[in-house]
Structure formats: C-alpha cells, structure tokens
Specification:
By secondary structure, the protein is mainly α. The protein has helices spanning about 5-10, 15-25, 30-50, 70-75, 80-90, 110-130, 155-165, 170-185, 185-190, 220-230, 255-265, 275-290, 295-300, 305-310, 310-325; strands at about 200, 200-205, 210-215. Helix 3 packs across helix 5, helix 8 packs antiparallel against helix 10 (about 220-230) and helix 12 packs across helix 15 (about 310-325). The relative contact order is 0.08.
Length: about 350
C-alpha cells in the first residue's frame, strides 16, 4: 500500500535519505510517518535556502531544489534560523495549498509536528552519525498546543447515521461506519484491513508506528461483515486481500472513505462541518467510556501508546457531569434573602 521511500525521496540529499532509512529500518517508523518527516524536512530546507539568500525570493517554494544540501550547509543552521522558519509557518504559510480562499498560519499542532521532525533529524546527525559536534536545536521547544475536547456523535445520532445509509454501495458503507463506531479505528487503519486480518471474533489492526493490536468484534460488526462480504466487488489482483474495495476495484483509499462518511452524515441530516470520519473514532471511544469501559482497556482498543492521550475522554465525562448539574430545573433557584433583623424601638 505504501510507496517505497526511494520513490518519494528521489529529490532528497543523501544525508536526508539516510535519515529516512534509519527511522524506517532501525526505529521501525511506518512508511507513512517517514513520508511525513520527508515532507516536513523538505519544506524546512527549502525555506532555509530562501532565507539564507541561496535562491531568489521570487522562486516559488515548491520549485526550490534541496538535492544539493550537504553537511556543510547543515552546519550553518542556527536556532535563530529555526525560529525564522517557525515564524513563517505561524504567520505566512497557507493552510490550504493552491487555494485562493486559504487562511494563513499553521496551527500549534501542525507546527509541533514539524518541530518534532527537525529535532529528530538533528539528533540523528549529532548522536548517531556524529556529523555535527553540537545539536543546534537541542534547546528548541515545541509550540504550545491547545488541547480541545473531542467532538463526537450521541448514541441517537450514531443510530440515525447508520439507518440513513443507502445507495449502490450501502452494504460496504454500512460496514465501514459500523467498524468506525464500534471499534474506534483510525481511517488509515480501516483502509489497510485485509480479509486475512479477521480470525473468528477478532481483527488484527496495524496502527501507528507499525504497532499491531487485536480488536474484538461485537455482534453488530459481525453482522455488518456478513452482510457486506457477499456484495464485495472482485478486486484487481494486487488488492485481492483488501477488505474494502472501491468501484474501480482497487483497495479503497483514505480520501474516498472521508468523502463517503461526509456523504452519509449529510444524508442523516448531521453537521458535515462538525463531524468527520475521525470524529467517528472519538464517538466510539466516548460511548465506550461513558458505558463503563475502563481507561486502560480503552487505551488498548484505540492503540494509544501513552495513556495520557486516552485520558481526554475522562474530561468529556467531567464536562457531561457538569452540564447535567446545570440542566437541573432547580439549578437557578436562589435562596431567599435573609430577613432584616427587627429594629429596636
């Protein structure tokens, strides 16, 4: 499914290709993660070349070559250079490339991911390859990110979504929505499912960082699969094991799944701006937690490496309890004012 690294990093200098190979083969990062690091570091090097006057400022960023970047160039990079890059990302970088209506300035979360890639790259150059004597970004802090509570569907809205599914691929789409809402899968995990991943009432899921986990299937999931599989299109040979097949007889891709989720949300009369495929994962996690699944079990189901990531669902519960208290019809009844003491004559 993932393109080999050599196909998407042909324009990268040797030192960057070596780093991508290291995180893939030694650290066990997935091809998707390595590709994201490549894109982040390519942009970083392009901006630095422009800021350092090595190319014309009129040259579009996506036209700036980085194949000539060598260790001598990397030795010139300072923490101030990185701050200049982050200032560009925060204020000038379009949030939607090639769109005339785009906003500018990436979120703290997006910038934090790019900082993570930069720090990993320079740690590799300093501590693993020993090509740099001093890591120029060793004191670089990640941008502050605002942690917002996940958005999720209620039980009633989830049922309405499932009941609204219709059309040529109704069995497939219903099965996709059911797995999202019951298993809490990421979109990338769902499109990667193979027929061979299913054994009895379990499915093997390949998550972030190529980490595998086992998820148990409830009655709703098994029923949806039994209904879908006889209707499954015969795929092309290369995708013969893929669970979900597109109308072109290929493994369904991430963008198609996101689109069909939006379509069915709209058909159900739900807010397509507020909800998305990823919000269905939040829905599954929230409903499980609200119905008694403990936080450690939920961590395992969702494939979170750190339980602190899962803990956000406890805050949802806290918010619900607080809202419940305010919705009591007696919540605004104030005590009577104390009577004034009688005046002495």
């Amino acid at each position: 499914m993932d393109k080999p690294m050599s196909l998407y990093a042909q324009d990268a200098p040797r030192v960057l290709r070596d780093f991508l190979t290291y995180i893939s083969t030694i650290q066990g990062k997935s091809a998707k993660t390595a590709h994201e690091y490549y894109l982040d570091l390519r942009l970083f090097l392009r901006v630095l070349k422009r800021n350092k006057g090595l190319v014309s400022r009129d040259l579009p960023l996506d036209k700036i070559a980085i194949d000539d970047v060598d260790i001598e160039f990397l030795r010139t990079i300072t923490l101030s250079d990185v701050y200049d890059y982050l200032e560009y990302m925060a204020g000038e970088r379009p949030t939607q490339q090639n769109s005339v209506t785009t906003d500018y300035g990436l979120s703290g979360t997006s910038r934090a991911r790019k900082v993570s890639a930069i720090r990993a790259f320079f740690r590799y150059l300093t501590n693993k390859k020993h090509l740099l004597e001093v890591d120029p970004v060793r004191y670089l802090e990640s941008p502050t990110t605002r942690k917002s509570l996940p958005v999720y569907l209620t039980t009633e809205d989830s049922i309405r979504l499932l009941e609204s599914v219709q059309g040529a691929n109704a069995e497939r789409d219903y099965c996709i929505l059911t797995l999202f809402l019951n298993c809490g899968l990421r979109v990338s995990e769902l499109v990667g499912l193979d027929l061979t991943d299913f054994q009895g009432d379990t499915v093997r899921v390949l998550g972030k960082g190529a980490k595998e986990r086992t998820v148990y299937l409830n009655d709703a999931c098994r029923a949806a699969l039994e209904r879908y599989l006889p209707k499954r299109l015969q795929p092309h040979e290369r995708d013969r094991d893929a669970l979900f097949i597109s109308r072109n007889r290929n493994r369904i891709n991430v963008q198609t799944v996101k689109w069909l989720v939006k379509k069915h949300l709209g058909q159900a009369g739900l807010d397509t701006q507020k909800y998305s495929a990823h919000k269905l994962r939040h829905t599954a996690a929230t409903l499980m937690y609200q119905n008694g699944v403990d936080i450690r079990t939920l961590q395992s189901i969702l494939g979170h490496t750190d339980v602190s990531t899962t803990m956000i669902y406890t805050h949802i519960e806290d918010r619900n309890l607080r809202e419940a208290a305010t919705k009591n019809p007696l919540a605004t009844v104030a005590p009577p004012s104390p009577e004034a003491p009688p005046q002495e004559e």
